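Re: the request from the purification team.
They wanted to know what the chain is likely to look like in 3D before they choose a buffer screen. I agreed to run a prediction and write the result into the notebook, where they can find it.
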Amino acid sequence: MQIPSYDNVKVSIGQDSHAFEESNGKPLILGGVVFEGYPGMRANSDGDVVLHSITNAVSGVTCRNILGKPADEMCKSGITDSAEYLKVALGDLKEKNMTISHLSITMECLRPKISPKVDEMRKSIGGLLGISPDCVGITATTGEGLTAFGKGEGIMVFCILTVCKGE
């Protein structure tokens, strides 16, 4: 196996967090997957903290922050699907001739239990990114209840994205 040169590989971290909002009537969406029976997130968009974290990681490679003015403008025009914000970021990545090779996601939350939907989330995220679900790792923890996320007040997500320059 040939190891790519460092000039051709970039790694970026993404993060996002949101609190639950019991009364907003939104579904809880994580990685493009609906988690029934849980309140949605407090956000102008659909509040998909997983896709927001990934979008931020892509922005770390392209150096253009999508979850700022571009997403705010999209939201004002009625586009609240976080997958659409990610698509804008991925367009920037494509312009730089970069492709995603791996994504590692870690979540901190007491609720919902993530394990039952990990495979569905990996397929959804892989489809959005154009990579195999085998290239999407997802872990979750309660953090032993030491933070607001571990106490069930919201969800925090970190991800590490690895991209390679195309030929």
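For the purification team: The chain is about 30% helix and 30% strand.
Please add any questions underneath this entry.
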